[in-house]
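Lecture notes, continued. The same structure-token format from the folding unit now serves as the input rather than the output. Read the line below as a description of shape only.
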């Protein structure tokens, strides 16, 4: 590893494919993702990173079986098969475009509340029984078939988080989880600290990234063995809006792709 190497981390977060809300439905999402993809390509062309870490932060599809299942049944404009198909296609098109401009891509996926296997709103099965992880596996087969330079990483079967030593230097360690493990954003730092005490996958992370809360937040936390700060980056959302939160809290998260 050279000290001039650069990695661009892309937080592909909360697309919730199939969801219909105040920003529109599937057509609006497709248009938003395409515009975002073009901006991302321009950024990669400008910054010329040595690798891209493409982190699927979770809630890639809306699903029908989590907390708002009745509302999802009435408002979603895609079936579960169509949601998974489109989410796979949007990620695949973006990854293919990026391979024209960057020599290496690492794709990360973790479980999330909208993508998990659930029965009666309760999570069942392993941590990797998840549509987001499933989409990552499908993308891995496609990349292998056509020979694209993409490495795919998912958590251990019973975990919901992972960590990647980006430059294999023991210092630039990226931790990834969705965020649904904490009921509120201000409880995420405590969850991360507890994970460290329990020697969980994100224990060694120097930068932690998550989704779920649909707004950008950057928080400085604690310190690393080298005496620098750790940071938690909460990703913005790519979805069509959360009208229930807008009505309840009076706030509306602005869509965007955090890098």
């Amino acid at each position: 590893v050279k000290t001039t190497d650069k990695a661009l981390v892309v937080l592909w977060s909360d697309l919730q494919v199939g969801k219909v809300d105040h920003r529109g439905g599937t057509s609006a999402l497709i248009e938003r993702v395409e515009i975002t993809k073009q901006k991302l390509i321009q950024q990669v062309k400008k910054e010329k990173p040595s690798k891209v870490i493409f982190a699927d932060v979770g809630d890639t599809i809306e699903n029908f079986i989590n907390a708002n299942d009745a509302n999802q049944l009435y408002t979603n404009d895609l079936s579960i098969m169509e949601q998974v198909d489109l989410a796979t296609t949007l990620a695949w098109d973006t990854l293919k475009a990026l391979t024209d401009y960057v020599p290496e891509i690492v794709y990360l996926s973790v479980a999330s509340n909208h993508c998990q296997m659930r029965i009666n709103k309760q999570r069942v099965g392993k941590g990797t029984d998840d549509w987001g992880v499933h989409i990552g596996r499908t993308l891995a087969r496609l990349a292998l078939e056509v020979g694209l330079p993409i490495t795919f990483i998912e958590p251990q079967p019973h975990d919901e988080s992972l960590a990647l030593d980006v430059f294999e230097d023991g210092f630039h360690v990226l931790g990834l989880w969705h965020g649904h493990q904490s009921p509120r954003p201000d409880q995420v730092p405590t969850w991360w600290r507890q994970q460290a005490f329990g020697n969980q996958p994100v224990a060694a992370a120097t930068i932690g990234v998550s989704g779920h809360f649909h707004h950008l937040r950057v928080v400085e936390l604690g310190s690393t063995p080298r005496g620098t700060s750790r940071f938690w980056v909460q990703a913005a959302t790519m979805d069509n809006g959360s009208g229930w939160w807008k009505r309840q809290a009076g706030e509306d998260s602005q869509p965007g792709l955090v890098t």
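Point for the exam: The helical segments are 26-47, 69-75, 80-98, 131-146, 188-197, 243-249.
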